[in-house]
Specification:
Length: about 350
């Protein structure tokens, strides 16, 4: 896709300064700009690059003042960073503006499909599935029986949504995601062997949830595993059966959450955090990366460590830990002095 400076300025409500007919078909960093690319200048430390960049178009703040000759065409806007982000969103919408049903696919006759859908080749849509309007299901996706998917959702290639799962509106489910696989439920019998406990619940994903590639969310043993509105999940996260994650919580990659743990609203959780099961995590909690959480956490706490404890206490303790060899040398010196006396 190619866009002229005039077209881009129209989208951003900006003003062209230079060649208004110049075309771009790709994006670049300002220091790596090449002919035919679009870039932006928002951070002052990158200002020197605007005089050497080969990018055809550069988005700048309207009050930018050039101190040298510039070869790139400028588009002046109120806020270059926000305008570039807006342009990325627009570009993504255009790029992903697919519609229609490709062949071959399998769509059960009992399914109910909304309007303006895209269903890619080799997708499977099972019995009694409901799909809302403007939703896109990419090739090789699997939608099991009795699944409900809302409006304006995107299910990328290779995602698997098991039976009875419910997905709200405006959700993004990336490749490799598995929703609704059996929870890790086993019970030892008299012979010491593990017998499987049937997992007959489901997974509920509320509106505006983003789920990163390779993340797995297990169905509940009974009831539902619930991901509340606005939650953002990174890649390769494991969420076990009967977990509940509160509104607008964000969780980074490789975090694991054991069964029946409840996480509150507006939490920020770093990468590789591990949660024990049956915990209650409050609202507005901050958990640093690689923490191991084995206790309940109250609202507004910031914690770190494994096992985790208060972030301020951890920081103070870590200073002493780093100085431990010096402390031990002093201790041994004092001990020798006492013994000699």
């Amino acid at each position: 896709m190619k866009f002229t400076a005039t077209q881009i300025a129209g989208i951003l409500e900006g003003k062209v300064e230079g060649d208004d007919a110049v075309e771009v078909s790709k994006l670049s960093k300002i220091e790596e700009g090449t002919p035919g690319s679009l870039t932006f200048l928002a951070n002052p430390k990158y200002t020197p690059f605007i005089y050497s960049t080969e990018a055809s178009i550069t988005i700048v703040d309207k009050d930018f003042v050039a101190e040298q000759e510039i070869s790139t065409t400028l588009i002046r806007v109120e806020n270059a960073y926000k305008s570039f982000s807006k342009l990325l969103e627009y570009y993504n919408e255009v790029k992903m503006n697919k519609s229609g049903i490709e062949q071959p696919v399998f769509i059960s006759e009992s399914s109910s499909l909304g309007e303006n859908l895209y269903i890619g080749a080799f997708a499977y849509i099972g019995e009694n599935v409901t799909v809302g309007n403007n939703t896109k299901i990419y090739p090789n996706a699997y939608i099991g029986d009795n699944v409900t998917i809302g409006d304006n959702c995107t299910v990328f290639s290779g995602a698997k949504i098991y039976s009875e799962s419910v997905v709200g509106n405006h959700c993004v489910i990336n490749s490799g995601v598995i929703l609704g696989a059996d929870g890790f439920g086993f019970s030892p019998n008299e012979a010491g062997e593990f017998a499987k406990v049937p997992q007959i619940g489901n997974v509920i994903i509320e509106d505006y949830v983003d789920i990163g590639a390779g993340t797995t969310i297990d169905r509940a043993t009974l009831g539902s595993t619930i991901i509340r509105r606005g939650v953002k999940l990174d890649n390769q996260i494991q969420i076990a059966h009967n977990v509940e994650i509160g509104k607008n919580t964000a969780i980074a990659a490789q975090t694991g959450i054991a069964g029946s743990t409840k996480i509150g609203e507006n939490c920020l959780i770093g990468g590789q955090v591990g949660f024990a099961g049956h915990l209650t995590i409050g609202n507005n909690v901050r958990i640093q990366a690689q923490s191991g959480v084995g206790r309940n956490i109250k609202d507004n706490e910031t914690i770190q460590g494994s096992p985790s404890f208060n972030y301020s206490d951890f920081s103070k303790s870590y200073v002493h830990f780093r100085n431990l060899p010096k402390i031990m040398d002093r201790f041994n010196s004092i001990e020798k002095k006492i013994n000699n006396e």
